[in-house]
């Protein structure tokens, strides 16, 4: 079964906290960083968001492909105050918000473009891991018709439900 393709026509801007990691590091509890990132996000930022606001996990700044290092930002959508030029790359800039924990915030843009969307519903983090597993299986299949961009991928936690709910995994494609 092929996941649906969605064309994002607008740039989306999100602000949150970030770590750099690799898929290899995430296999071992001793070196994994994503669980700690999401724990910190939940503890320090979720209570300050509007109830029902979508939450985003943005994967960007890929060193290469799924083997290299990448940054992950646990975040929420904000209004973009700067117009993005066509030459802008996906850059990180620190941006102050009304959040009391602003010293370590990173702002990242999700570019307009084509994304393959893998959607799952259930208990986190198993649900998001299932979505990633489906994506990896699809893109590693020799008969795969699409090519990942390794520019920006993101998880959208619908209505901000980080414990039980729907997650949509958007994988950037050419």
Largest sheet: 8 strands, antiparallel
Strand content: 35-45%
* Structural category: alpha+beta
Distance between the termini: 19 Å
Strand order of the largest sheet: 1-6-8-7-3-4-2-5
The topology string of helices and strands comes to: EEHHEEEEHEE
Keywords:
eight-stranded antiparallel β-sheet; 174 residues
How would you describe this protein?
It is built from three helices and eight strands; from the N terminus they run E-E-H-H-E-E-E-E-H-E-E. An eight-stranded antiparallel beta sheet has the order 1-6-8-7-3-4-2-5. About 11% of the residues have low confidence. The two termini are 19 Å apart. It has 174 residues and is α+β, with helices and mostly antiparallel strands. The chain is globular.
Q: What does the secondary structure layout of this molecule look like, with pairings?
A:
Layout: E1 5-8, E2 12-21, H1 23-27, H2 34-44, E3 55-60, E4 70-78, E5 106-110, E6 113-123, H3 126-140, E7 148-157, E8 164-173
Antiparallel strand pairs: 1-6, 2-4, 2-5, 3-4, 3-7, 6-8, 7-8
Task: Give the structure's gist in a few sentences.
By secondary structure, the chain is α+β, with helices and mostly antiparallel strands. 18% of the residues lie in helices and 37% in strands.
């Amino acid at each position: 079964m092929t996941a649906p393709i969605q064309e994002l026509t607008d740039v989306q801007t999100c602000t949150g906290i970030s770590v750099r990691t690799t898929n290899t590091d995430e296999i071992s509890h001793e070196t994994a960083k994503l669980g700690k990132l999401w724990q910190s996000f939940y503890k320090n930022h979720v209570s300050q968001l509007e109830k029902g606001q979508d939450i985003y996990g943005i994967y960007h700044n890929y060193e290469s492909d799924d083997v290299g290092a990448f940054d992950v930002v646990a975040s929420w959508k904000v209004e973009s105050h700067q117009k993005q030029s066509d030459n802008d790359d996906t850059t990180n800039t620190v941006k102050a918000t009304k959040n009391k924990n602003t010293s370590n915030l990173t702002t990242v843009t999700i570019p307009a473009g084509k994304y393959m969307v893998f959607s799952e519903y259930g208990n986190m983090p198993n649900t998001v891991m299932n979505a990633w597993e489906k994506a990896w299986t699809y893109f590693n299949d020799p008969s795969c018709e699409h090519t990942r961009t390794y520019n920006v991928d993101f998880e959208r936690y619908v209505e901000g439900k980080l414990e039980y709910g729907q997650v949509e995994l958007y994988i950037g494609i050419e």
